[in-house]
Amino acid sequence: MKENLFRIQVLRVVATAVVLFLVYSLFHVQVVEGERWSSMAESNRFRRFTQVAPRGSIYSADGVTLATNIKTYDVAMSYEHDRQLREQAITTLCSLLNLDTDEVTQLLRTHQRKFEPVVVASGVSFEKVAMLEEHRYLIPGLVIQVNPRRHFPQPYLFSQPLGRVSAREYTGISGLERQWNDYLQGQSGSYIIQVNANHVPIGEPVYDREAVPGHDLQLTLDAELQQVAQDSLRRVLEKLRENETAENAWAGAVVVIDPNTGRILAMVSEPTFDINNPNSFVQGGIIYPEEVPSWARTHGLDRTVNYRKPIGSTMKMLTGMAALETGNVSSSETIRCTGRTEISNQPTQCYARTAHGNVDMIRALEVSCNIYFGNLGHRMGRDVFYQYLEIFGMGWEHRNAGFTDIPFGEQRDALDYRLRDTWFGGHNVQIAYGQLNEFTPMQVANYVAMIANGGTHYKPYLVETITDYTGEVVEHFQPTIIKSHDFDPAHLETIRQGMLAAARGGHMRGVAQPTAGKTGTAEDRSPPGNAHAWWVGYGPYDEPEIVVVVFLERGGLGLRAAEVGRDIFDFWYEHRQDND
User: Which residues lie below 8 Å from residue 391, measured CB to CB, with a gap of 6+?
Assistant: First the structure.
């Protein structure tokens, strides 16, 4: 009997202990660690996702889509608290997607918001997604998200100015995409969805905040004209290399601008690249065609606004206007050209040492007489050059003539800064015919536009209209006058007639409308050698509609650049007549 009572007592003690242990455990789970377990349960039951807002599209003036969005698959993982299951999921996922296991492990470990999935791979193909779905049972926490990805339907047409977008943050990091990111980016949203024990979504998502798409940009760019300019530039460069006329002619630029508004109608930079290729931007590099030499690979640099070179004889209209306006020469005064001479101790000669005889301003522009303009430079001096470079928007005051629609690098002084402390009279002579000074094609286009329109400096601009996703206009940009200079009409007419005579003399003969133009050949002793070819012009002569600047880096004689200009004017005159 006593033995039974003892056993009952022991059972009571054990039962009491078990009950106390269960009560303590329940208290610990529900009270002490209740918040932790509740959070874990909720995070296992619900998933919070970020809904990436589609970026606004970018269109040309003639309605061609230059940048838009396509749907892409992103692979994300929710944090799995069970260590064994987490390691299994990471190993399986990395083997299927060829990812680094340590990097994914570190990414999940350092992700602060454990209730939100973290993206481990972007732009995954549909085939890979299907493979992941087949192995989902081995990858707890797997999340497949459909997000927008930037796509450029014309991948080679406008690469440098458009710029690029970072894949992870989906934000602009260069070109128009960066400069106008606040408009293009939109506002991301978020939503919550319930999942079952196998982490498979069930039911409809509940939105905290729906994404708002970014604004669209409509540019001033004429996509058809841009294509004509790019095709012509490529063809001429290739022809120069094949004919062994200029074996280093791999690069160049074209700018076409409306002189009456500042609207940019085309801006081409070569060599270009496939902007859709994500491998083009690994470690800041660009994938160019293999045959492009190393010196021409500029890491996506836009030669229209971020590249300065001497402009040769295309400087002579500015020199001539400065000399006429300051009284250093008259339209009728003649200067004798002997083909070769010395001015301010600076040896000066015309092309092929051709002696032009007694020439006035118009004739000097027609035959591109270095001796005539060298004498003007000697008369004027350095300060007059600085003054008129500022007047024509080529100096320090207005970077790239005031163009701000895409970001660009540091601006150097308009005249060669290395000469400031060692200036001598011979520098004035060389600058007068386009040596020692370096400018971008955009600066040159604005300067020629001011000659064409009578002295008005319009701010060059590329973005014309911004609309929201409903089609409502947010901003519309009008032509902006930076400054106007009251040039003497007789002086302007003298310069224009010189350009008209130069164009009629050969490179623009036979075009549909009278067109003014000027060639330029600029020496450059930096490797790999060869001169730069320039051509500038506007037309029609009496009522200018477009200004064209062509730059062939290492292209040799300026006459070679005129072929591109002719192609553009031939297209423009035919295109304009078709639209009239």
Answer: 485
Instruction: Please tell me the distance from the alpha carbon of residue 409 to that of residue 413, in angstroms, as a whole number.
Output: 13
Structure tokens at 215: 């604004």
Backbone angles phi, psi at 385, to 5 degrees: -60, -45
The backbone region for 284, taken as left when phi is positive above 0, alpha when psi lies in -120 to 50, beta otherwise, is left
Q: What is the pLDDT of residues 440-461, one digit of tens each?
A: 999 999 999 999 999 999 999 9
The type of residue at 340 is R
Distance CA 441, CA 485 (A): 21
What pLDDT digit, counting tens, does each position of 235-290 carry? 999 999 888 778 888 899 999 999 999 999 999 999 888 777 765 554 445 666 66
**Residue 534: strand pairing partners:** 520, 551
Q: What token pair was written down for 142?
A: 């797997």
Selection from 461, 360, 336, 449 nearest residue 403 by Cα: 461
Does domain 48-215 sit in CATH 3.50.50.60? no
| Topology of the domain comprising 223-579 | Beta-lactamase (3.40.710)
> Which residues on neighbouring strands pair with residue 458, listed in sequence order?
481
pLDDT, tens digit, 9 for 90 and up, residues 546-557: 999 999 999 988
The closest alpha carbon to 184, from 173, 175, 172, 174, belongs to 172
pTM above 0.90, yes or no: no
Q: Which of 333, 350, 330, 537 is nearest to 451 (CA)?
A: 537
What interhelical angle do 126-134 and 83-97 show, nearest 10?
150
Task: Identify the residue whose tokens are 């190993």.
Answer: 91
Please name every residue paired with 270 in a beta bridge, in sequence order, or none if there are none. Answer: 252
